[in-house]
Amino acid sequence: MVDLKIQYLHIKEEIDSAIQEVIDQAAFINGPQVKKFGQELAEYLGTKHVIPCANGTDSLQIAMMALDLQPGDEVIVPSFTYVATAEVIALLHLKPVMVDVEPAYFGIDIDQVEKAITPRTKAIVPVHLYGQSADMEAIMAIAAKYNLFVIEDAAQAIGADYTFSDGRKQKLGTIGHIGSTSFFPSKNLGCYGDGGALYTNDDTLGKKMHMIANHGQSVKYQHDVIGCNSRLDTIQAAILSVKLKNLDKYCAARQSVAALYDKAFVDVNGLVIPKRFAKSSHVFHQYTLQIKDGKRDELKKYLDSKGIPSMIYYPIALYDQQAFKPFADPNMKHPVAEQLCSEVLSLPIHTEMRGDHQAYIIDTVLHFFKA
User: Fold this and answer.
1) b or e along 181-213 (b: 16 or more beta carbons within 10 Å of the residue's beta carbon)?
2) Coil, strand, or helix at residue 114?
3) Strands (E), the chain
4) Rounded to whole angstroms, how far apart are CA atoms 195 and 227?
5) Is the CB of residue 186 less than 8 Å from the CB of residue 45?
6) What is the distance between the alpha carbons of residues 50 and 181, in angstroms, rounded to a whole number?
7) What is the DSSP string of 136-160?
8) Handedness of CA 179, 184, 185, 187 (dihedral sign)
9) At residue 175, what are phi and psi to the nearest 5 degrees?
10) pLDDT in tens, the chain (371 residues)
11) Which of 28, 138, 230, 338 has the most CB atoms in a 10 Å sphere around its CB?
């Protein structure tokens, strides 16, 4: 699905030098590279505070801890997303309230969000799925109307821009009260292990999240709040500083791969290419097709037989996961989420995609539909 080794070879000298510098300094925990990367990412995103942490799941948990949500408070999430989005809600004894997604861009359905709000609702977690935005302007309007927090799950969309109705642009993750992301190796900005970060323009939240991620400390051995141990490794921060300089180039490369897929597949019956949300750029963390007529699993098996990897993101709606049965009505049905679970298939897409490799993938998919 991605070729991280080839990407590394193109930046090998810088990466090796950055890693060696950390080893020479022996500052493996909270070394200067962590602060440096946080400052560089804040500048890139145009946000006041970036708090690096251990992984994307921790970033979501720390965000909710910082908002002082109480057991039983409700947090609205899409039912078509990775488990981490809702997992941390349940872990903190909050209630994940799952709503359907809209069928064109797979973002959280705005109408369903408003219908799901109760007196216990405290926050909304929109997910910027596959590399483009949920409808943040509408979400922020609902949040303002009902006095709710917004935590953006931007793990798949770092580098993407959102354009407001008045022409303003902001990077995804910087629009809500808090943004969160993951630096899992396959992400558009990925490290060589686990890593994550939080963003905010709120000084109070920024300070609190920094404390929470570091055992609740304001200064060493002074613990002001209950926190956790969630640190971005210094070596990973050094790697990310190198890769951040290439992020826009990486996103453009993915967009070029996506454009070639689009051109090849746009007129194929039984196959739907990704739609673009007009307010958002798309950085294509995944290139996800919809395969109609019940042929998705058959196509996946065919691709496997030809040595082509593919992935289903995601095969099961959250409310159908055993872990989330206690939070869902047993009769809950979200038709869009369930349709997507049976139709989506993601093809390989990465920054170093060779033309002959992509041509082979395209030819194989086309042959399947012509057979």
Assistant:
1) bbbbbebbbbbbebbbbbbbbeeebbbbbbbbb
2) helix
3) 49-53, 74-78, 95-99, 121-124, 149-153, 161-163, 169-171, 178-182, 196-200, 217-219, 222-223, 271-272, 287-291, 344-347
4) 18
5) no
6) 10
7) HHHHHHHHHHHT-EEEEE-TT-TT-
8) negative
9) -95, -45
10) 999 999 999 999 999 999 999 999 999 999 999 999 999 999 999 999 999 999 999 999 999 999 999 999 999 999 999 999 999 999 999 999 999 999 999 999 999 999 999 999 999 999 999 999 999 999 999 999 999 999 999 999 999 999 999 999 999 999 999 999 999 999 999 999 999 999 999 999 999 999 999 999 989 999 999 999 999 999 999 999 999 999 999 999 999 999 999 999 999 999 999 999 999 999 999 999 999 999 999 999 999 999 999 999 999 999 999 999 999 999 999 999 999 999 999 999 999 999 999 999 999 999 999 97
11) 230
Give, as one character, the DSSP assignment of residue 293: T
User: Quick check: 112 and 100 in contact, CB under 8 A?
Assistant: yes
Question: Token pair of 229, please?
Answer: 């141990």
For residue 139, which phi and psi values (nearest 5 degrees)?
A: -65, -45
CB contact at 8 A, 97 and 326: no
- Cis ω before 199 (30° cut-off from 0): no
Beta bridge partners of 223: 217
- The label of the residue with tokens 């946080």 reads 38
Distance of CA 111 to the CA centre of its chain: 22
Distance CA 56, CA 59 (A): 5
Give the Cα separation of 207 and 319 in Å (integer).
Answer: 35
Sign of CA dihedral 177, 182, 187, 192: positive
SS3 at position 181: strand
| H or E element at residue 36 | helix 32-45
Amino acid letter for position 204: T
Strands 149-153 and 121-124: parallel
Cα gap 252→282, rounded to integer Å: 10
Under 8 Å between Cβ of 159 and 132? no
Q: Could you tell me the two tokens for 111?
A: 């109408």
Residue with tokens 């890139």: 44
